[in-house]
Amino acid sequence: MTLHRGIRVYPHRFAVKWGASIIQVMGYTATGFGWTPWNLYLFLIGVLGWFVVGAIWNDKALMLVHLVALGAMIAGMTSGSST
């Protein structure tokens, strides 16, 4: 933690939050271009990243929504169905 003008700055939190956001945007891009299964891999990393952000912030709602999304993605990936 560093102080910048009296404000607490946590560089690792910033990195996880923005890293997960960028990776999820890359997942949306991969979906738009039909780049499967790369889109799923990117979404998995992004969802896990945002789950970690929720844990860091102790935000149970953020953790829940990303845990459910992760479960749904894993269930879909292991079902072997493709559309």
UniProtKB/TrEMBL annotation:
Alphabetical keyword list: Membrane, Methyltransferase, Transferase, Transmembrane, Transmembrane helix, Ubiquinone
GO biological process: methylation
Iron is among the record's keywords: no
InterPro entries in the cross-refs: DUF6552
Transmembrane segments annotated in the record for this chain: 38-57, 64-82
GO terms of molecular function: methyltransferase activity
Residue ranges of coiled coil: none
Entry protein name: Ubiquinone/menaquinone biosynthesis methyltransferase
Species of the source: Sulfitobacter donghicola DSW-25 = KCTC 12864 = JCM 14565
